[in-house]
Design brief:
By secondary structure, this protein is an alpha+beta fold. The protein has one domain. 51% of the residues lie in helices and 19% in strands. It contains four helices and four strands, in the order βαααβββα. A hairpin with a 2-residue loop joins strand 3 and strand 4. It is elongated and about 60 Å long.
Length: 134
Amino acid sequence: MEIYITGWQVSGEEAERAQKAPASELPKLTPEQEKVAKGFEVSTEKYARIQLSGIYSSERLKATANRMAETLRSELKKALPEAEVEFFQYEVGSEPHRVLVRHKGKGHSFNSSSTDDSDDAMRVLAGGIAAKLR
């Protein structure tokens, strides 16, 4: 199954964690990033902390997307064993998540009815997909 994440979101906790991180944990900036920091009149340390908050966010979003996709895959397999989730797109923010399911040799595209990223929402989505494909 291919998993894709659209959107970006840094939590307050991630930003705070990056601000409190020891300098030894800050990412090494590329020359291009150093130019951007200079252009925005931001110190390279501050820019590195911004980058670190993005790293923390990326890790969280990947873990969330993987959990959601696995819950959806597992629940759909229970409801309709011959169906296979091929693609899951986690839409961060206000857009519904997208899913491509292969069933009896055909691809079927579905959008979730909400932006909820809970396991319960994935169970509901799996049930709805199974009902439509039966």
